[in-house]
Amino acid sequence: MDESGLWNGRKVADWMSRVLERRVAPQRGWEYLKQMEFRLRLPRPEHQQQDPMEQEAWKKNCLSE
Questions:
Q1: Range of the domain at 29
Q2: What does the alpha-carbon distance between residue 11 and residue 3 come to, in Å, rounded to a whole number?
Q3: Number of folded domains that form the chain
Q4: Which pLDDT tens digit goes with each residue over 28-55?
Q5: What is the pTM of this model?
Q6: Cβ within 8 Å of residue 7, ≥6 positions away
Q7: Helix, strand, or coil here: 2?
Q8: What share of the chain is helix, strand, coil (3-state, %, to 5)?
C-alpha cells in the first residue's frame, strides 16, 4: 500500500486493518478522517500566462492611488 500522498477513507481503513488485524470498511476510515477534522487544503491554481512583474507594477500603482 502506498502511504505517501493524500490519505482517503480507503487508505485509512487499509492501515487500520493492518494495525487491528481485522477488516475495516472504507466508510469507517472516512468517518475517522472526519472525526479528526481532516480537511483537504490546496493552494489556488495559478494562471498559466501570469506575469509576476506586471502584478508587482499593478500592486504598486494600486496602493499609491
A1: 1-41
A2: 7
A3: 1
A4: 999 999 999 988 777 888 888 989 899 8
A5: 0.57
A6: 33, 38
A7: coil
A8: 55, 0, 45
